[in-house]
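Q: How do we represent a protein-ligand complex in a form that can be generated token by token?
A: Start from the inputs.
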Amino acid sequence: MARVNRVLSLPFVLFCVSSFLASRSFSGIFSTQKSQHKVRPSRVLRRAEYSTVAVPGATGRLGRFVVQELLKDPKVEVLALTRNVSRAEEFLPVDDRITVLPWKPEDEAGAVSALSKADAAIWCAEGRQGLVALGKAFASRETRPSGSPRVVMCSSAAVTRPTWSEKQKSQFSGAADIPIVRLNPGGLLDEKRATEKLLRQSGASYTVARPTGLKDDWPTGRPLLSQGDVAVGRTSRQDLANFLVRLLDEPKATGKTFEVLTVPGYPKPLEYGEVLDRLRPDAVGPVATAWSRVRSWFGGQQAATYGVLQQLLPGEEQNSAGLAMGQTYEQYDKKEEGRLGPRGAERVPETLGSS
Ligand SMILES: NC(=O)c1ccc[n+]([C@@H]2O[C@H](COP(=O)([O-])OP(=O)(O)OC[C@H]3O[C@@H](n4cnc5c(N)ncnc54)[C@H](OP(=O)(O)O)[C@@H]3O)[C@@H](O)[C@H]2O)c1
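Then emit the structure tokens for the protein with NAP bound:
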């Protein structure tokens, strides 16, 4: 009898743990309803928390777009870090708000001192040494009042795939059997995985975005986020740059790692808070396996699919549960009433299709 009790208690304990976690960090995963009356902290207020943003790798193909995006806010100044000033002259616009800062990532003290001049940073470079210096430069900085990250790291999709079991590789062969993972030239995915880990351990407040293959001529659209490192596809550098800059204003991005690709043609959401809220924080790591088992018992697959499909809603507000009958997503975005009246007081027709 005692044994039966022990056996029965395990799922019960896991259920309690899952309910507790679901009510905290994972509220979005089990939630199937969105509040219509979302209270969104103003992005303008969050931006007031930083004025100088460092961009290591600013001369690179992504870095240049990131600099352009940052300069769209007239209050922001950019520290463009480069190992080669002539590349800055060649690739960056002439602008009083850009300070080109030559750096040597291998000179840690000099790199930390250069990076410490900034309030936040968007990493668009390569290499372990520079990222270590970045982590050190921001480790002792106080948390931003909004909780938004100080360091946004552009990493890469697929970094965990070399570590997958054979079973995982065959189950998700479309993610594991792609050229970059099969060949993993110079162990670059392992190096990036290790570099991400160093940032997580640095004590700096961070977010890690792992894009799929970057393209300059992929039509612009909407970033789509996922976890589990199964994303494959293309990412527009321009959209990614816009997204990385937006992450500086997203408290729900802090302490999380996720993949991103871009879907052409879709308008960008007004904000990413809700989709980021559904993502698992990195700190959950040690119980992640137990957690994913619990989730699969309680509809994890459905929740994950829901999380992806909600990102493919038309419009910018992304709130299907806020629509009135007869109201289009576009009308909802413009706060226009639909043809059948406001939500909750719709003049429902006898037959659908008539007004
Ligand atoms: N290309 C893809 O398909 C792809 C896919 C997923 C993720 N990513 C990642 O996205 C980021 C940006 O990619 P991108 O295509 O824009 O790269 P990119 O054009 O090669 O630019 C990277 C920049 O980083 C700097 N850099 C290179 N090695 C460095 C080192 N060891 N230490 C410090 N700085 C270094 C260089 O600038 P300076 O010479 O001026 O210092 C370079 O301009 C990279 O982290 C890349 O790994 C790329």
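The radius of gyration is 22 Å. The longest strand covers residues 257-264.
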